[in-house]
Write a structure and sequence with these properties.
CATH class: Mainly Alpha
CATH topology: Fumarate Reductase Cytochrome B subunit
Strand content: under 5%
Number of strands: 2
């Protein structure tokens, strides 16, 4: 649960930062924000690895029987498809960003002190091919996050089936 919420905050913050910084004029502020964006991408990648390992060793609990029975087949397919696509994009978006940064000749130096290896060799033509894929995959992930949040709100506000309680900290302390 903690990884879910930490990853959610990191994804939203990094997406907002990426949209904001993309159109800034070249300046020290833009360079600083790009570095923060890259650092966040590395952290998201590490959290994604941790989340995947956790999910592989701790299967997600099944949907409550009443909720599953009330869901049409297309909603069950959308539920599973969205989760699988999100997991894929947790890796695709930061890896494509890292590849773009490497191809553009801008290495990733985590927190300004730990240089990470280039994902690909510097190649301006390759960078131009990769760049739109980082944006496309990031916007695809944002759309899936909105669908995920929308579905959670539907379960909470319309179905009132308590499904969201599974992802909230327990109040019994």
């Amino acid at each position: 649960m903690a990884i879910h919420w930490l990853l959610a905050l990191a994804l939203i913050g990094t997406f907002v930062l990426g949209v904001y910084m993309a159109d800034l004029p070249f300046s020290p502020t833009r360079l600083k924000l790009y570095n923060w964006h890259k650092w966040a991408g590395v952290i998201i990648l590490l959290l994604s690895v941790l989340r995947l390992v956790w999910r592989l060793t701790h299967p997600a609990p099944a949907l409550p029987a009443a909720t599953e029975a009330a869901m049409p087949a297309w909603q069950r397919m959308a539920h599973h498809g969205t989760h699988h696509a999100l997991y894929a994009l947790f890796f695709v978006v930061p890896l494509v960003g890292w590849a773009y940064s490497s191809a553009a000749g801008f290495p990733v130096v985590l927190f300004g002190v730990l240089p990470l290896p280039d994902f690909v060799s510097a190649d301006k033509a390759l960078a131009e091919l990769i760049k739109p894929w980082h944006e496309i995959s990031a916007f695809a992930m944002a759309a899936l996050v909105l669908a995920h949040v929308g579905a959670a709100l539907k379960h909470q506000l319309i179905d009132r089936d308590g499904l969201m309680q599974r992802m909230l900290p327990s109040r019994s302390a």
